[in-house]
Each structure stands twice: as C-alpha cells, then as structure tokens.
C-alpha cells in the first residue's frame, strides 16, 4: 500500500468513526474528507494543539470528557488510559466550532489523537508536564536532591584529587628534611643527595601510579557495587592514608607517606572516573553537560585550597605540614556520612540490577515529580540495545568495530589533555614569575592567584557548556593552549634580550590556564559518559583513566629531561600536540549537547559504518511506519 493510500484510509476512518468531531476535523482539513493526499502534517497539528491546550489549561478543572487530571502532575499514562476508555462512548451530533469552548475542543482533539494512536496511524507522543523536559513551558530543572548529590559526590571525591595534587608542593623542602632526619636517627648518617632525590621522586610519582591502578579498578567495582557504592568504598583509600600521613612525623616514618601517596592515588584514580559516570547518569540531558563539569570544578577548588593552606604563614611550616597532608580525610568522612541518603544511578538499577521499582523511585527523587515514564522508557531502550552485548571488557572494547571511533576519541582526548603541557606550565610558572621580577617570597601568592583563575574559568565552563556545546569548548580550549605555547616559546627565548618579555610570559601562562580550564580539563571525562552506553561505559572509563594517569606520569618523568635538552623550546612539543588534538576534534568529534545517549550512539553508529552497535544485535531498531514521523 502506498503512503498516500495509507494516509487517505486513516482519514476516511476518522470521518466514519468520530462523526461527532467532524467539525474539528474540518478545521484542520478545510476541504473535508474528499481531499486526498498525505494527512500526517494535519494530524501532527492536531496533536500539538491538544498538547499545548492541555499544558495551558488548569490541572484542576474537568475536561470535556469528564476526566479530572491529577493536580500538579502531567497527563500521565494512567490518565491517557482513562481517556481512552471514556472515548469509547463517542458523542454524536455536530456542534458548531464557533460555539465550542476550548475545553470541548480539547476533548475532541484528544479523542481524535487517541484514535490515531490506537490504530498506529500516529506515533504516541510523550505528554510533558509544565517544567518537564520537552515542555513548552520549561525544561527539566535542577532539583535540590540532584544538586546536593552532585555537590557531595564531587566534594567528597573530586576535591581530594585536586587537593592531593598540590598538597605536597609547598612543604616539599620540609618533607625532604624530615626524610633525611629520620634516616639519620635510624642509621647515624644522612642520606646522600641522589638517594634523597630518589626517595622524594618515588613519593611524588606514587600518586599518578596509584591513579593508574585506581583506573584499572573502575570497571569491576562499578559493576559490583554500583556508582554510589563505589564512591563510598573509595573513601577507604582516603581516610586511611589521611590518618597515616597525619601521624607520620610522630611515628618517625617516611615510609607511611610513600604508602599513603599510593593509596590517595588509587582514590583519585577511582574518583576521577566514577564521579563523572555517576553524575552523568543522574542528570537529565539538558543538565548533563553542566553537572559533568562539576567534578573538574572541584578538582580545581581542591588545588586552590591546597595552595592556600600551603602558604608558609599557614600550614607549610615545620609543625603544620602533617596536618596539611592529613586534611584530605575530612571530605571523605563527610561523603561517607551523607552520600548514603541519596539515590543510586537509575540506569545502573534498571539495566544492571534489573530493579525497575528502585530505578523509578530514584528518578522520582532526582526529578522532583512522580511521572518519569518517558525517562524510564529511554533507559529501557538503552537496555534493549545493549542486552545482547552483556559485559564488555577492555579487550572486547578494542575489538568491536561498532565502538572504534569512540575508543580512538577518548584515547586522543585524554592523552591530549595531559600531554598538552599543563603540568609543564605549572612547573615553569615559578621561574617565569621570578624572571618577571616577582620576589621569591611572593611567588606563592602569585601561584594562588593562578589557581583562582583556574577555578573561575572552570565555573564559567559549568555555565557555558550547555550554551556553546562540548565541541566548541574543546576546539576553543586547545586552540588557546596551542597559541599560548607558541608565544610562550618565543617569550622564553627572548626574555634575556627584551626587557618586557617576562610579562608576555606571565600573560601566556594565564591564557594557557584559561584555555585549559574551559575545554581540555573538564570536557573529556564528560564525553566518555556521553558517547558510550551502559554496558561499555565502565570499560571506557578504565581506558580513558589509564591513558590520563599514564600520560600524567610520563610528563612528570620525561619533562625534566626535555627541559634540560631543549630549554624554552620544549613547549614546541606541547604546541604540536595541542594542534593535532584540535584538528582531530574538528574532523571527528561530534556535538553531544542536548542529545540522549541513544541519539549520540546513533551518530557514532553512522561514523563506524555499521548498522549495529553490537555484532549480535541491532542497537536501534527501525521504527514502524506509525512512529517514523513525517
């Protein structure tokens, strides 16, 4: 049967089945039933008119069909079912349109649309409540429960990552002195310079190594304990080392510091992957970008707080440095007390635990209203698409053609994030400030100012990520970093010959920090959540986290040698990496703003040139003709 015949048959059927509503039909079909051709545009107009009238009308009044919707909720599935039953008793007669009230017209439109939906002539739309996603009035809002869950998860986990990155920088000389003195008390002689440098290097490098180990633990833990359960379990790797580091001076043991740095590294490796995953699965699609940047915001806040507490006038002194290291346990303790009162990821509950009641209750708490049917349906579609795949390991992730560009993208983005020179910029910053005439004692305050700029720009990213999109922020951020590295190279090479060049170097450092905070720092982890579905997401975070921490470790290990060999020209390497990453993003990475996980996955399905997301099963089945749209 041709489409024209299909639509015409439905049109005739309407005319015969609903004689009492022919006046309404004529208002959408001015020429009446004898007009042939496609009618779906007119039907969509009917449906839209009814939805707008239903939204605008008072929730407490009785409709033309005698049904009263529940106050404060949208016209949910139960209401639609009642309306269907009521519409079986179709009215007769031919009322005049000019005499019909909006209430009666709404009832007529409802009957027409319900008939079309029952006969599969028109796809059943989702009826949004005012304030819900897709509503003509408002989009989904940030509820109190969702905002508190975001703050507690990010403060209790991501904050510690940033804090422990910077906590050992200020008291470094004091800690080396403690190492040396402790060794002397045990052996009656001091450590030689090489051994002391080696011990300190091990202490520092244990953190990224622990982060790598933590990334490898992400998949098994989130599948076994869930997202929230993993965050609670992860607090062990913060509270225990906080106690050990706080007591290390009293115990006269630098070994406790080294072991503790490994443990807090594991904590950071888990939190840097699990928090974006947890928040990405809690958030509605119109808030997913903003909430996905919050973990990076708290990382920068943690760095800034460590820099402030690390001032010599506060805790970076002989008596205060153990306290500075031990403070990392406070956010973990607060998270351990508060996070159990907040929901687990609804996607985890429904797809992996198969607990529909718990998933629905979690969504109700997070969204602030009772009707979450459309979101539950989207999660079910993802479950159906993923059902055949089962558990996806890291090896399977690399072998699946349907995930090829997603895997390549996260490797390039996470590698570009760390290999773009962010650690090298901070390493060089003190020398740049000193060469510009900043006094040695005041460099610590300038460093705190740089940390404040980092926080401020990450706050900006939270608000603009849903406005500009992920792709634009990544392109903008890496482009700014590329330009800053190029100019900084020239400024460092000429700073001994041109008097004002050191000030250009300071400007380059600040511009680099701004660019990195806008895109390269916060967006890659957010994209991992968005471009992978539920079954492959844990393995993807393991890959992305491993690349992140290995790149971090490699830069820390290799950069000092590059700096000795190339001097100021070492930033040319980072400029090239920024440029190549920018080109890749421009050519490959799609925009994910405002899209569901299934819609994003469909984009990559086309990029991977496969008709299936998993070889065993179609991910997105072809919709029947009734749901195909225009």
Class inferred from helices and paired strands: mainly alpha
**Could you list the spans in which at least 5 consecutive residues all have pLDDT below 50?**
30-38, 55-102, 124-139, 612-630
Instruction: Encode the helix/strand succession as letters.
Output: HHHHHHHHHHHHHHHHHHHHHHHHHH
- Rg, Cα atoms, Å: 30 Å
Describe the structure.
With 630 residues, the protein is mostly helical. The protein has 26 helices and no strands.
Short description:
The protein has 630 residues and is mostly helical.
Helices and strands in order, then pairings?
Blueprint: H1 3-17, H2 22-28, H3 40-56, H4 77-86, H5 102-118, H6 144-166, H7 172-187, H8 193-234, H9 236-251, H10 255-282, H11 288-309, H12 321-326, H13 329-338, H14 346-352, H15 356-367, H16 373-386, H17 394-399, H18 404-419, H19 422-435, H20 443-468, H21 470-494, H22 501-518, H23 523-531, H24 537-566, H25 571-587, H26 597-607
Helix pairs in contact: 3-5, 6-8, 6-10, 6-11, 6-13, 8-10, 8-24, 9-10, 9-13, 10-11, 10-23, 10-24, 11-20, 14-15, 18-23, 18-24, 18-25, 19-20, 19-22, 20-21, 20-22, 21-22, 21-25, 23-24
């Amino acid at each position: 049967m041709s489409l024209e015949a299909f639509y015409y048959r439905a049109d005739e059927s309407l005319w015969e089945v609903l004689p009492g509503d022919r006046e309404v039909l004529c208002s959408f079909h001015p020429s009446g039933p004898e007009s042939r051709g496609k009618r779906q545009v007119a039907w969509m107009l009917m449906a839209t008119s009814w939805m707008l009238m239903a939204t605008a009308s008072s929730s407490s009044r009785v409709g033309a069909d005698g049904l009263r919707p529940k106050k404060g909720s949208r016209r949910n599935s139960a209401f639609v079912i009642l309306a269907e039953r009521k519409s079986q008793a179709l009215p007769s007669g031919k009322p005049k349109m000019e005499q019909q009230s909006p209430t009666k017209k709404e009832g007529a439109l409802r009957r027409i649309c319900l008939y079309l939906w029952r006969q599969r002539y028109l796809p059943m739309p989702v009826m949004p409540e005012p304030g819900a996603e897709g509503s003509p009035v408002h989009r989904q809002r940030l509820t109190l429960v969702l905002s508190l869950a975001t703050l507690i998860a990010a403060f209790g986990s991501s904050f510690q990552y940033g804090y422990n990155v910077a906590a050992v920088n200020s008291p470094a000389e004091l800690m080396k002195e403690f190492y040396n003195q402790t060794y002397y008390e045990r052996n009656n002689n001091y450590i030689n310079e090489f051994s002391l440098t080696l011990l300190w290097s091990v202490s520092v490098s244990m953190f990224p190594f622990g982060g790598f180990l933590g990334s490898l633990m992400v998949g098994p833990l989130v599948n076994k304990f869930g997202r929230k359960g993993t965050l609670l379990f992860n607090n062990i790797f913060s509270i225990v080392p906080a106690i050990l580091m706080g007591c290390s001076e009293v115990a006269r043991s630098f070994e406790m510091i080294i072991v503790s740095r490994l443990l807090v590294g594991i904590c950071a490796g888990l939190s840097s992957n699990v928090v974006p995953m947890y928040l990405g699965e809690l958030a509605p699609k119109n808030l997913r970008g903003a909430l996905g940047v919050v973990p990076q915001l708290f990382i920068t806040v943690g760095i800034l707080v460590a820099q402030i507490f690390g001032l010599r006038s506060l805790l970076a002194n002989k008596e205060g440095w153990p306290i500075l290291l031990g403070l990392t346990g406070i956010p973990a303790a607060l998270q351990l007390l508060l996070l159990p009162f907040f929901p687990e990821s609804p996607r985890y509950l429904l797809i992996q635990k198969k607990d529909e009641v718990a998933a629905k209750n979690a969504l109700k708490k997070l969204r602030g209203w009772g009707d979450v049917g459309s979101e539950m349906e989207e999660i079910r579609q993802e479950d159906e698409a993923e059902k055949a795949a089962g558990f996806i390991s890291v090896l399977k992730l690399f072998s699946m053609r349907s995930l090829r560009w997603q895997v390549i993208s996260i490797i390039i983005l996470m590698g570009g994030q760390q290999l773009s020179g962010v650690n090298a910029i901070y390493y060089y910053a003190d020398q740049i400030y000193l060469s510009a005439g900043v006094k040695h004692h005041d460099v610590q305050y300038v460093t705190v100012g740089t940390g404040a700029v980092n926080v401020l720009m990450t706050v900006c990213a939270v608000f603009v990520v849903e406005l500009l999109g992920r792709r634009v922020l990544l392109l903008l951020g890496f482009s700014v970093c590329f330009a800053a590295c190029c100019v900084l190279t020239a400024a460092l090479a000429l700073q001994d010959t041109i008097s004002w060049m050191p000030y250009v170097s300071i400007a380059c450092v600040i511009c680099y920090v701004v660019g990195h905070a806008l895109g390269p720092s916060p967006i890659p982890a957010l994209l991992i959540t968005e471009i992978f579905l539920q079954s492959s997401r844990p393995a993807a975070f393991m890959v992305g986290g491993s690349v992140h921490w290995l790149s971090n470790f490699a830069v820390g290990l290799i950069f000092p040698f590059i700096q000795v060999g190339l001097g100021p020209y070492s930033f040319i390497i980072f400029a090239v990496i920024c440029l190549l990453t920018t080109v890749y993003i421009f050519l490959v990475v799609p925009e994910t703003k405002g899209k569901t996980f299934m819609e994003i996955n469909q984009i990559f399905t086309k990029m991977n040139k496969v008709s299936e997301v998993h070889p065993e099963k179609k991910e997105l089945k072809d919709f029947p003709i009734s749901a195909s749209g225009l």
